[in-house]
Amino acid sequence: MNIRHDLRFLLVWPTFLLLLLTGCWSNLEIEDLGIVSGLALDIATESPIEEELKKQGGGYSKKDLITSTYQIATPPSSEQASKGGGSNQKPYKNISETGDSLIQSVREISLRRDAPPIGHHLKVIVINEELVRLYSLEQLLDFPLRDNDFRPSCLVLISKGLASKTLESNDTTEIPAFRLIGIVDNEYRTSRILPPLSLAKLTSKMQSGSSFLLQNVISSSGEVKFAGAAVIEGKTKMLLGFLNEEELDGLTWLTGKGKGGLVKTFDVETKQPILYEIESMKSKIIPHVKGSNISFDVNIESEGRISENWVTSEKTPEKTFIKKAEKSTEDEINRLVNLVIKKMQEDYQVDVAGFGNQLRIKNPKLWENIKMDWDKTFSEVQIKSTVNITITDYGTSEISR
């Protein structure tokens, strides 16, 4: 009797498990989903369909303030996939809507597509510079920050020119939003890419009241490039201006947050270039307080290698060449650092390098008294930088020729 009972149990239990493993009965095919990979925000420009609606007396009550462009991934259909590709159809579609509310714009797109956009997989938000001069980041990003559909890991960039153009590409095999994320990952190759700033990190930046930077991207004819950084004023959360590529380079040396890159110098006698490749970088900002006077020392250290050397006309002893290359590299880094310090203190009067944070750590009582007007105080403090470069490798070529 026990054996029969055990056999029945063994037969019934797998059947019961099969009922629990029937899969997602309410699932939708990926082709039927409007998966948004990128979002671009620009000054209002009406699309042809919106212009036609106005002619016909249609539309809804709104102010034309912002044009939001949603990049929707369009994976190949099963039929296309079975044919092995070869199609010229791009794997994405950009859809724009103009209005004064981002969430209302999303809902309006639901009147134009059978697959309304969903933001669960949004990778990047690009905001046009003119828009951030008119409205604060708090206003522009209120909807993405409130809505649970948007991942807090989504990155935020600023664009010179139309943000929607950064979501276009001539390559029929790539999704432009993914391309932008891929460029961010190249920070180990260059010192001109900022550490990525996600929605989650951006929230804490805005709440701190301190000024900060966002990566700038430019676009032309389907191509994009990271070129400098946007300076966001801490109190207003609006755009002040930009750091160019050299100034961003200098800021990376100031903060010591670079993961790689190059420094190009020129030999004094031959005027030929020498390229120093960064293997490690660190910086220490040291605050000094004497009475009411505040000053800073910045000690920068780096180890690296000579990756390219065009000086071929003279025979220089190895040690002499290395010392000369180290000195010229130090001078160039000092130039870049002083360039960005001047920009911060004189042009914009904001601290985007973290000097205030170091002062807060060393002298918290003083910081409490001056933090509300720190940017103005920072513009008047003295900053001295010291750079120490060590060349540990010069490749396989002989230096003495």
From TrEMBL:
Subcellular location: Membrane
Record carries keyword Lipoprotein: yes
Predominant cellular place of this UniProt entry's protein: membrane
Positions of region (Disordered): 75-95
Keywords: Germination, Lipoprotein, Membrane, Palmitate, Signal
Transmembrane region(s): none
Stretches assigned to the Spore germination protein N-terminal domain: 29-214
One Pfam entry name: Spore_GerAC
Domain spans labelled Spore germination GerAC-like C-terminal: 228-395
PROSITE patterns from the UniProt entry: PROKAR_LIPOPROTEIN
Membrane association type: Lipid-anchor
Protein name as annotated: Ger(X)C family spore germination protein
Lineage: Bacteria, Bacillati, Bacillota, Bacilli, Bacillales
